[in-house]
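Students often ask why inverse folding is considered easier than folding. One informal answer: many sequences map to the same fold, so there is more than one right answer. In these notes we will look at a single instance of the problem. The structure comes first.
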């Protein structure tokens, strides 16, 4: 006997399927919102921690106009030289605009792995620098040694902590909220570099001003990420590669006797890093 169709049966099945799909996509949406909210809260919490640290280190206080020239920096020419004490004083005078420097003793107490402080005017880069036992710990832990997706800018663990290497390398995350090295890619535009060519590194040994001379993308496995450049040939190779790869020409002179700073962060391509390199003007 042929089964008699029940009126509205097909419609009911369709309605049930729609409801199942509705609740499924609603659950997916809610989970996504909760995850995004958690990430946003984590970013806010981490940023708040660094903001508090910044104020405690007194980095943002206004400079004394009687001690610091207009613009917050003091020009140092190659001809200037003197005793180690005088050289150290010159380094201390090289500070970011509107800054009295930083309390290194305080930051060292907060984290024994502290080696210096980095500021890049025109960006959000304004953080203490640490140096761990490896190059992965501070990708996952903040300055307070708490697990964090933001991490903390760190100096390559294989390099001298006083930035005395021919090339000192600092890495930090490229965050979506533009914190850490999230604004480093502003240097893709030559106009931005022309307005903000300097990177400031303040250490217990003194403060240094670096002028950016090269900006480019590079695969992570490359000679520029080597910890040491022991020979004149290897130093020249690094300089030549940096100048050749740069997105735009800066005409900044770099010699093998100089001290270079290499900053890098991740890009959308997991195998490629965005690299900014600068040469010290007062080491």
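Output (designed amino acids):
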């Amino acid at each position: 006997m042929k089964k008699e169709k029940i009126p509205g049966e097909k419609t009911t099945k369709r309605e049930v399927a729609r409801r199942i799909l509705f609740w499924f996509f609603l659950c997916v949406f809610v989970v996504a919102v909760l995850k995004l909210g958690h990430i946003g809260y984590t970013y806010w919490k981490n940023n708040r921690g660094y903001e508090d640290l910044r104020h405690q280190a007194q980095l943002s206080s206004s400079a004394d106009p009687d001690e610091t020239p207009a613009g917050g920096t003091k020009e140092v020419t190659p001809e200037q030289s003197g005793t180690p004490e005088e050289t150290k004083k010159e380094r201390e005078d090289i500070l970011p605009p509107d800054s009295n420097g930083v309390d290194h003793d305080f930051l060292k107490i907060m984290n024994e792995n502290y080696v210096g402080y980095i500021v890049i005017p025109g960006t959000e880069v304004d953080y203490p620098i640490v140096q761990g036992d490896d190059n992965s710990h501070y990708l996952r832990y903040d300055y307070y040694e708490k697990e964090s997706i933001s991490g903390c800018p760190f100096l390559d663990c294989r390099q001298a902590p006083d930035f005395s290497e021919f090339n000192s390398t600092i890495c930090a995350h490229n965050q979506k909220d533009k914190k850490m090295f999230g604004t480093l890619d502003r240097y893709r535009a030559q106009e931005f570099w022309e307005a903000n060519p300097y990177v400031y590194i303040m250490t217990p040994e003194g403060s240094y001003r670096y002028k950016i001379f090269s900006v480019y993308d590079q695969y992570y496995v490359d000679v520029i990420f080597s910890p040491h450049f022991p020979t004149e040939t290897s130093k020249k190779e690094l300089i030549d590669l940096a100048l050749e790869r740069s997105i735009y020409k800066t005409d900044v002179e770099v010699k093998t006797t100089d001290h270079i700073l290499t900053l890098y962060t991740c890009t959308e391509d997991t195998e490629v890093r965005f690299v900014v390199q600068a040469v010290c003007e007062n080491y």
